[in-house]
Specification:
Chain C: Belongs to the binding-protein-dependent transport system permease family. The complex is a heterotrimer of chains A (about 425), B (about 290) and C (about 280). Chain A has about 425 residues and is α/β, with parallel strands linked by helices. Chain A is built from 17 helices and 11 strands. In chain A, helix 8 runs antiparallel to helix 10 and helix 16 packs antiparallel against helix 17. In chain B, strand 1 and strand 2 form a beta hairpin. In chain B, helix 2 crosses helix 13, helix 5 packs across helix 7 and helix 7 runs antiparallel to helix 10. The chains are: A alpha/beta (about 425), B mainly alpha (about 290), C mainly alpha (about 280).
Amino acid sequence: MRKMVVLLVAVMMLVGTFNVLAQTAEIDIFISMPEYADPINELIDTYQEEVNNEVEINYETTQSDYPTLLKVKLNSGDIPDLFASTSGKEIELYKEYSYDLSGEPMMDTMLPSVKKAMADADGNGVYGFAIKGNYFGLIYNKDLFAQAGIEKFPETISEMETAIEKLEAEGITPFTSGFSEWWVFKHLFQHFLVAAEDDVQALVRDFENGEASFSDYPVLEDNFFHFVDLVVEHGDNKILESSLNTEISQFATGQAAMVIGQGPWIEDSLIQIDPELNIGFTGYPVSEDPAESQVISGADQAVRVSSDSEDLDAVLDFVNWWYTSDYGKSWFTDVAGVVPPIEVEIPEDYYQIIQEGIKASEEKGSAPLAIIYSTDSFHSAFGEAMQTYVGGNATKAETIETIETKWQEIDGSN
Amino acid sequence: MIFENKKEKYLFTLPAIFMVSITIYLPFLISSYYSLTEWNGIDREAKFIGLENFKTIFFENNQFFDVLIFTGNYTALFMLFSNLFALIIALVLVQKLKTAKLLRGIFFVPYIMSMIIVGFIWKFIFSQGFARLYEITELGLLNLSWLGNSELAFYSVVLVGVWQQLGFYIVLYIAGLQAIPGDLLEAATVDGANIFQKFFKITLPLLGPSITVCMFMSLTRGLKVFDIILALTQGGPGGSTYSATLDIYREAFQYNNYGLGSAKAIIFFIIVLILTQIVLKISRRNEVEL
Amino acid sequence: MKRNSRLKINYFILEVIAIIAAAIFIYPVFLMFINSFKTFREVIIDVIALPQQLNIDNYFYVIDKMNYPRLFVNNILITAVGITGIVAFSSLAAYIIDRSRSRFTSLAFLFIITPMLIPFQTFMITLLKVMNIINLSGSRVGLGIQYWGFGIPMATFIYFNFMKTVPKEIDESAFIDGATTFQTFIYVIFPILKPVTATVIVLDVMWIWNDFLLPLLMVNDSQKTKTLVLAAYNFVGQYNTQWHYAMTAMVLAIVPSLIFFVLLQKYIVKGVVAGSLKG
């Protein structure tokens, strides 16, 4: 009987030791954003070819369940050298595990707005870097708007209502919503949130502490819900089944004129379906003040360097190279095709949505990225509450109450 | 009996006991400890808070009860449909049909597919497939929002769950049916029994062991439903399709309340334990030994 | 023979109904197959229509992207290790539990089968912790060994149910011939259990081959250890807007189990039936 135990344990240990025999410097990358898998693989190959072929780089990516898997890894001591979170509020959550990059050469090229999104709760340090900057706003089909005789894109809610009528008169569905995805709601909501208060970070903190409420801000209590109602009424057939895919196919096949809650990341898929698509991109109408209809820009994702990394130097070399070498700097626009998080020229024939975003922020300024001040834990609860509202299973008052409670429960400091 | 005083009863069960202990009981015990703590799953230290989590579940928030009701409803329908349809199809497929073998194979196909993939396929069917089929057939049923309406989403999840598992129960029932001695049924025919009498008086009672196994399997699988919902609705719309396991998962990983999630897990485990014991007792009593 | 011809017609109607039901039943799988041969545009425009031409570009692309042959080897290895342990340990345990009915064995039985009721999600973090300590995480063989623990409860339950039907006289006569308990098990009982073993193997191959959450936790780290379903899952996540590739990846993930099933279907059914008939 004892022999059996010894044998079993021995077999396991033997299997175990085979796994431990590790190589030299090794960088384990485990980040979300699988849509950039190909560019990142190319980046890694270039690094190994041109700079350092000694280092072994394991790159893994997943979208669904990323936070779950990350937590499991952190807890079991199997911490990836590079891992991801959202920026802003979540910087603090994983601060214990993150290396402060503020003394690194990559600071020279990193945009100030990106640095700010990577600071901890007290505004200190740079606990991550971005793979991309981003724009958030309303994507629309310029040709369909022209067809409906709308010359100027609506900047106020009443202009939007008129535009909806004109579009529908032409038999065009005004919106496609993606309301089955919880994160579409956070992308939409932030445009109203930044219109509610200049210092949006302070406003979010007040919500977390239960010191702010929707009723103080008509733009949240009335305009936001009114806008959601408009989308429900003039949008997809099965509104709560509408997903990212629905939005892409509805919009790219010319069946819907506007896309809710998306940004530059969908352009590749749109162009694949219809290369001739004439895409516009601008802020949401959030009130009767045209000046408040702005695009939002900023870095919403953060890649973190593990402070416990066994090969910290190798990891830092790699990320500094990413941000400062010639190849690394051109990677953002030439290979990945993203909004660069560094100071670099944008090519002239770049993505339509990004160009439109740049144009819009030059003309009317851009609003700060509000979603980063709340965690995705809260946002998914927020999305769920909004889905319940959209499905008609909760009134506006009940929905607001749920959101206010969840905000305190999940993101508030107990 | 010859085995009474032998050490083999320890020796032969030991590997099984050992493996089950380190892969299941040990992690489960450690998790149980966390149910007494406040821990977000990220910090290096967990804070001991005694029974606070259980207090929260029972007295402060009835969300977990909603989830348990959903799981109960799901399991009930899942058990009913899986066993009913499997039995009916099995009864047909043991007849002398030319295509019986092929059809058996077809019904088993979904069972050999990963549940995650099954979920993805059905998501595609419910959205893209149904929309196109509606355009062609104009069947109103196809134009309903099967994943977008919270009540319909429940039935969609049940449908996909049953669809995936049906083949397994069909095989078990076919095995049971074929084990019934043909001369018994022939004798009944000679005695003038009609098809229903034969079924209820002979077939069904003799299927006892198969029914026990199928009921037990469908009960535990129904209660633990996870992958399919994850791929199909992710608990939506508006959180209406959270099963107990998915809720535990959400509490621990999405809301960062690992301690609270573990407490829910303990409660859920106890409920499952009680339910399965009851089902086993009942079906064992109704079995007829051959 | 009037009665005979009426019976024939009845059978024919029954057969037609059964075929229609099976066709509807399997339609979703069929839809997945045809969409895997379409271009992106075709999928978006009409998901029901047959592909305009049998386009296998999707397959070349996905096989190359997923590193399919490697995944295939990983799956085989993990499944083989898992099955071996499950069959060996479960049959052994079920045998002695049935034959030596004492307080210890009934407790052992309860102890072994109870985990069927513990939801995996409730202890997955701590499981990875334990597996890291004994170095079973992150490797294919390690994952296979873990399946012993997760597969034994159900396999023991199945073996036990069939063991009850094997007459005790069989082993008694072996003992009289002077065999030890272990020899009796290996040479007499295990061969009798063959049909049940076939059932256990088939059921567990299906399960391990397709399992998702455990491999996700244990071997998702590296291309070298990934399983087929994981790769398909990641692939669908990565290309979730490109249904044609997603469908292809899913087809590729299920095709091996489909072939396995088609080849062994007779054996599966036979195994289950033979086991039952022993009663």
